[in-house]
Amino acid sequence: MTAMAQTNMQTDPNPAIVSLKGISKTFSNGTVALNNMSLDIRQGEFVSLLGPSGCGKSTALRIITGLTGPTSGRVDWPQETAGATEHELSFVFQEPTLMPWATVFANVWLPLRLKGISQRQAHDSVMEALEMVGLAEFAKSYPRELSGGMKMRVSIARALVTKPKLLLMDEPFAALDEITRFKLNNDLLHLWETFGWTVVFVTHSVFESVYLSDRIVVMAARPGRVVNDMAIDAPYPRDESFRTSAVYSGFCRDVSQALHAAMDAGDDM
Amino acid sequence: MTVALSDKANPAKTSYAASLDAAPLDEEELKRVRAARIESIGRWVVPLAILVLSVWLWDRICIWNEIPHYILPRPGLVFETLLIDWPILWVALLNTLKITFGALFIATAGGLGLAVLFTQSKWIEISFFPFAVILQVTPIIAIAPLILIYVDSLTASLLICAWIVAFFPILSNTVLGLNSADHNLRNLFQLYGASRWQTLRYLRLPAAMPYFLGGLKIAGGLSLIGAIVAEFVAGSAGSGSGLANQILEASYRLNMPRMFAALLMISVTGILIFLTMNLLSHLLLRKWHESALKREV
After folding, report:
1. Three-state secondary structure call for residue A175
2. ipTM of this predicted complex?
3. Range of the domain at A20
4. Can you tell me the mean pLDDT for B254-267?
5. Residue A241: what are its φ and ψ, rounded to 5°?
6. Could you give all domains of chain B from N- to C-terminal order, each with its CATH number?
7. What is the overall mean pLDDT for chain A?
8. Theoretical Cys-Cys bridge with B107: which of A106, B72, B166, B173, CB 3.0 to 4.6 Å?
């Protein structure tokens, strides 16, 4: 996949699942979070939005969810019928964001419960989602009884239970220790390969983004904008041997350079 | 840490008993276990001993200074009066309890209902919150005579007085709790298209629970105080009279032992209400809230 092909919709076999068209966002205090950002997310992609803090990558994610509206520009969902109010997407926050008063089961059940699905009807789907993240035996536990990594897995299970087409993740592993993060990276990749969703992953780690994604969108701050769109052409499945390979470090070097160029251009530091 | 490596290690706390079985203890650990045991016993024994000691001192002071029983009765006499006057005092206690719990019930329902209403619309809160504050800051003893004049039924007026005192902590605490639900969780609910009712039922009410229970603890004590104050102002005798009326009546007759006996019953009632609220709060929060969790240090 080349950068040329990515910008050319007609020749691309994968249709866009969501496309941002000239999105700008200015906060009420005058900060320009995003300036004229255009981006197509195609079906089955694992896209990372990489950039320094303040580059608007989280804002872009929130605009895709519809939680925040853009100041100008628009978000298109080409595959959905016109007028659909809810999109088949899930969101994973930086914190696990679990309800402390509810069991692991009830937390994962929540998205279905809000759609009026009873506990009995939801049982199999919930357990399946917990199975995917390896926490089926903790269904009756409360969040406080789990470690940070386990809480994050519950959060991912909750995102998966609705079988979304698009999974949005806002620095989901940033608060975890490195060992747990590596493990969750592998698990996430494995799930992505198995189920073939589309993932948009926000991170500020070059190494994490190269390891996970097949496409990295590098962003710069002040104002937030896209400065580079890089394909990571390493084959999947990727595992620990990829993490130590020369190909991996080569990609890391390229992406780091792109990121530094972006930061110098934005006079960020 | 093994927790991070395996991600499956059970982080549940190991108790002292378990660690005792697991490995022989060294000098330092033995000392700590002993200190923990002494503290857990002392927690009960010390306050009890102080209580017994002060009752004994009260008794001695009466003897040493030859205080007559119509000035300060000895504790033994108070206890005796409690038994002799039990039929009268018991009926009075029931009357007071009726007002107390009636008021607490209405205060809980009203406080909770108003709190939910306030958080549904900013304008309702802005319009009516000042009234709640006015009711709270005006001393009940000053409003009570008016209420007694305007309301025909004595029970109803007593209930209104006790309610005014008790509902505010529940209202203000619950409003605070309903507004303190995690922001990301609110976004999540919004993302999944939750209705207003679902957000209230599954997110805001559970999040408000610890705050509400804190308010309930205060309201429990206040509704007893409200009931007693209202009885004092009403000053009625007869079938509807409560413990406060017994105290008033006994004071007219200089029946000190009965005053003390009634006072004792009020205190014990207050303590029991407090303990009940604590237990309720513990049972509802023990699974998840920080305030109810025990931690190893």
Report:
1. coil
2. 0.86
3. 15-88+166-240
4. 93
5. -70, -30
6. 16-64 (no CATH), 75-292 (1.10.3720.10)
7. 85
8. B166
